[in-house]
Automatic annotation (TrEMBL):
<dbReference type="GO" id="GO:0016705">
    <property type="term" value="F:oxidoreductase activity, acting on paired donors, with incorporation or reduction of molecular oxygen"/>
</dbReference>
<dbReference type="InterPro" id="IPR013901">
    <property type="entry name" value="Anthrone_oxy"/>
</dbReference>
<dbReference type="InterPro" id="IPR001128">
    <property type="entry name" value="Cyt_P450"/>
</dbReference>
<dbReference type="InterPro" id="IPR050364">
    <property type="entry name" value="Cytochrome_P450_fung"/>
</dbReference>
<dbReference type="GO" id="GO:0004497">
    <property type="term" value="F:monooxygenase activity"/>
</dbReference>
<dbReference type="InterPro" id="IPR036396">
    <property type="entry name" value="Cyt_P450_sf"/>
</dbReference>
<keyword id="KW-0732">Signal</keyword>
<dbReference type="InterPro" id="IPR017972">
    <property type="entry name" value="Cyt_P450_CS"/>
</dbReference>
<feature type="signal peptide">
    <location>
        <begin position="1"/>
        <end position="19"/>
    </location>
</feature>
<keyword id="KW-0479">Metal-binding</keyword>
<keyword id="KW-0349">Heme</keyword>
<comment type="similarity">
    <text>Belongs to the cytochrome P450 family.</text>
</comment>
<dbReference type="GO" id="GO:0020037">
    <property type="term" value="F:heme binding"/>
</dbReference>
<dbReference type="GO" id="GO:0005506">
    <property type="term" value="F:iron ion binding"/>
</dbReference>
<protein>
    <submittedName>
        <fullName>Cytochrome P450</fullName>
    </submittedName>
</protein>
<keyword id="KW-0408">Iron</keyword>
<feature type="binding site" description="axial binding residue">
    <location>
        <position position="442"/>
    </location>
    <ligand>
        <name>heme</name>
    </ligand>
</feature>
């Protein structure tokens, strides 16, 4: 009896469950709902939405259901509206930005939206007060840096990258990300040595926030397991705390360096010095996160298109050659600068087409609706996640005919729907759908564009990007076009390729450019520290070693050269004074008149003494004088090359000329006189049969004293000038 009751109860329960599921199924798939794949109660389409290459499945559904420019789907109860047409994105995310600019919660991050005041990750925050003030500040910092041309940081790092690629091409995936990271660390904390850790930290956050990251981002209930049996939460605690600590350490370090006057321009200094007093940012904790996040957000975002640039160029040698031609013609044999950008439409077109063809945030970033709404007759409930599917926008065949093919000409030739004139301004990356929409649109568009122009342009200037050959078979190793990770910001899977310098001269020039840039950077830093120490009334710290570059390239310090050379000038001066005013006059004391019998002996003695002067002047001091010519010429060149040197290259050139005059004068005027006096030792018959008048012995010696005055005056002038220039300013 009891068994029958239990059976009946089970049947009723089963029936009720089925009835409930059927009802729910009908409700969630009702005709009032926007079109989309059929949804299963509670699950939505979690069962057939792959985590890998999710955007491809979204696009597949877009082709089936996205006729209106959007479709809906669900995942474990979360409602999604996938937008596949730019016009719909404009309607929902720009025109209705006021209530469609929130962000969805990311389960595997603590308080990702900052609803509870954590204030940590600007791009992930809900549309709240923290987001508003951090966005405003971030925008103003980036804009200011853009206007300052990033203090030359991008050029410096691009040069370092070229040199690294020459020295260690196989490490290109690391050095590429490291370059992007160094730019951001330099801008944020004026310290490029932080790049490696910063990249790791950025990777940790990117993985944690992506659907393809921890399983708790998809199977969200797992996140709520108690801590002792929850490895995901434990790992996130560790990651989060370390990152926060590191950001705070950077902030405090900057502040303490500032107290000693040892911090150069950077965003953190700008904040502490200027912004902190007049901002609504709540204090150090929030500021350190704002700045730390700013450094992080510019790493993989920029590294992505840069990696795809390599892939694209390897597959399109014809376009690579066109970019190289353009740069060679327009940039005077040097890598492109931002001033050259208007003259480089082909480079810009290839960069933009790379980003269209291989977008690095292919799903787009979701917004969340804050109110119930109706769009195109369909009800959109509050809390819906609107996903602007960039992969679909960029493969729209009407806007981009032949969308699967890399065709930069679509930006360059009239007749293509995307062509825009003038070519000095277009194509530009700014406003691309890849940077998102409305109030949440990306703040790094200019920075991205500028960094890609500098980095991709430098690559094209320096290298032929080619497939690598297998050393044993000689076959080309494949560079896959469609293999990547599936994080929110994607990058190609590891691959191999070759970086072939375009010529030996280019290679040497690239190495020279880096050497020069590195030396200047070190000297600027040392000079800054010395000034800071002087202001504090302390002894100046030792100048950073110049000869020890990270790439193992020695460099000769112009400062060291000029100091050594001016020491030589004064040694020469001392010697010439001794000769003219002591040595030779001593030989002539009471010199007998030519009419006296003692004269012949005295003249012979004079001649025999003479080799000492000859040896000292010719063998020892003339080479030193010659070295002076080269030393001052090098210093003069260094001052000429150093844009803001306080040493004047023209004065140093005068010093070099003084030494030149001394050497020529010694050879042309003094040497014949030496030979004549030397001949006195053999009664007037010198080497190679030269005959001299012995009665003129004293006359020759006194003339020698007079001529030797040039060797007094010239080194004195050269040394004094060089000394004044060295005291005035550093050359390195
Ligand atoms: C190719 C490079 C980049 C791409 C494709 C990209 C893409 C995006 C996207 C899709 C969003 C979200 C937009 C939305 O919600 O509608 C975003 C937001 C953001 N991006 Fe970028 N980004 C790039 C580079 C950068 C760089 C270099 C920086 C900074 C240096 C940056 C800073 C930001 C910030 C701060 C936000 C958050 C804006 C907010 O939530 O209000 N991005 N980016």
């Amino acid at each position: 009896m009891q068994l029958v009751t239990a059976g009946l109860l089970a049947l009723v329960l089963l029936g009720a469950t089925i009835a409930h599921l059927v009802k729910l199924f009908r409700k969630i798939n009702g005709p009032d709902k926007p079109p989309g794949p059929t949804q299963l109660p509670y699950l939505g389409r979690i069962h057939d939405l792959p985590i890998e290459y999710m955007w491809l499945k979204f696009k597949e559904w877009a082709d089936l259901y996205g006729g209106n420019g959007f479709y809906r789907t669900q995942m474990l109860g979360a409602e999604f509206l996938i937008v596949t047409d730019e016009k719909v994105a404009e309607d929902l995310l720009v025109k209705r930005a006021k209530h469609n600019s929130d962000r969805p919660n990311i389960q595997s991050l603590f308080d990702s939206k900052s609803s509870n005041g954590s204030m940590e990750y600007l791009p992930l925050m809900g549309r709240n007060q923290y987001w508003a003030r951090q966005r405003k500040l971030t925008h103003s910092y980036i804009t200011e840096a853009t206007n300052r041309r990033y203090n030359g940081v991008m050029y410096h790092e691009a040069k370092r990258w070229m040199a690294r690629l020459i020295e260690n091409p196989d490490d290109f995936q690391f050095s590429l990300e490291d370059m992007a990271s160094k730019v951001m660390c330099q801008l944020t904390w004026d310290d490029s040595t932080l790049s490696e850790y910063c990249t790791k930290s950025a990777w940790g956050l990117l993985t944690q926030m992506s659907p393809a990251g921890p399983i708790t981002n998809v199977l969200t209930p797992l996140w709520h397991l108690p801590l002792f049996m929850n490895p995901w939460k434990k790992a996130e605690h560790k990651r989060h705390d370390e990152q926060q600590e590191w950001w705070m350490a950077r902030f405090l370090e900057t502040r303490s360096k500032m107290a000693n006057g040892e911090m150069r321009t950077c965003w953190t200094k700008q904040y502490i010095e200027k912004t902190a007093l007049k901002t609504s940012i709540s204090g150090d904790a929030e500021a350190s996160c704002l700045l730390g996040m700013l450094a992080l957000v510019g790493i993989f975002t920029v590294a992505g298109p840069l990696s795809y640039w390599l892939v694209t160029m390897v597959h399109h040698p014809d376009w690579q050659a066109a970019v190289q031609r353009e740069i060679d013609e327009q940039c005077g044999g040097q890598p492109p600068t931002l001033e050259d950008a208007p003259k480089l439409p082909i480079l810009r077109a290839c960069i933009k087409e790379t980003m269209r063809w291989k977008p690095n945030v292919p799903t787009g970033v979701a917004h969340e609706t804050e109110v119930d709404d109706v769009y195109a007759g369909y009800f959109i409930p509050k809390g819906t996640r609107i996903l602007p599917l960039d992969w679909a926008f960029l493969r729209n065949p009407v806007k981009y005919p032949d969308p699967e093919t890399f065709r930069p000409e679509r930006w360059l030739e009239p007749g293509w729907p995307t062509f825009q004139a003038p070519l000095t301004q277009f194509p530009t990356l700014k406003g691309m759908t890849s940077f998102g929409w409305g109030q949440r649109q990306c703040l790094g568009m200019s920075l991205t564009q500028d960094e890609l122009i500098v980095a991709c342009g430098s690559l094209a200037w320096c290298f032929n990007l080619k497939p690598k050959r297998d050393p044993t078979t000689g076959m080309e190793l494949p560079v896959p076009l469609d293999k990547s990770n599936s994080l929110l910001i994607i990058k190609p899977d590891p691959f191999q390729m070759a970086f072939e310098p375009r010529s030996e001269e280019r290679k040497l020039e690239a190495l020279r450019l880096w050497k020069e840039s590195d030396a200047k950077d070190r000297s600027d830093r040392a000079e800054f520290l010395q000034t800071a120490a002087a202001k504090r009334g302390e002894k100046a710290p030792a100048v950073a070693p110049i000869g020890n570059l990270p790439l193992g390239m020695p460099v000769i310090s112009p400062n060291a050269v000029v100091s050594t050379t001016l020491a030589c000038s004064f040694i020469l001066l001392g010697n010439a004074i001794t000769q003219s005013f002591m040595g030779v006059p001593a030989l002539l004391v009471d010199f007998p008149h030519p009419s006296t019998p003692q004269h012949a002996l005295a003249a012979r003695h004079l001649g025999r003494q003479w080799p000492v002067f000859w040896q000292v002047g010719n063998v020892f001091f003339r080479p030193i004088s010659t070295l002076g010519i080269f030393g001052y010429a090098y210093a003069s060149y260094a001052a000429y090359k150093k844009a803001h040197s306080s040493s004047d290259w023209k004065f140093l050139a005068v010093s070099a000329v003084c030494h030149l005059i001394t050497v020529i004068h010694s050879a042309v005027n003094m040497q014949p006189l030496n030979a004549k006096i030397d001949a006195l030792s053999r009664d007037g018959v010198g080497k190679m049969g030269i005959k001299v008048d012995v009665s003129l012995a004293e006359h020759y010696a006194r003339r020698w004293i007079k001529l030797n005055l040039v060797r007094v005056v010239m080194p004195a002038v050269a040394g004094s000038i060089a000394l004044s220039q060295t005291v005035k300013g550093r050359l390195n």
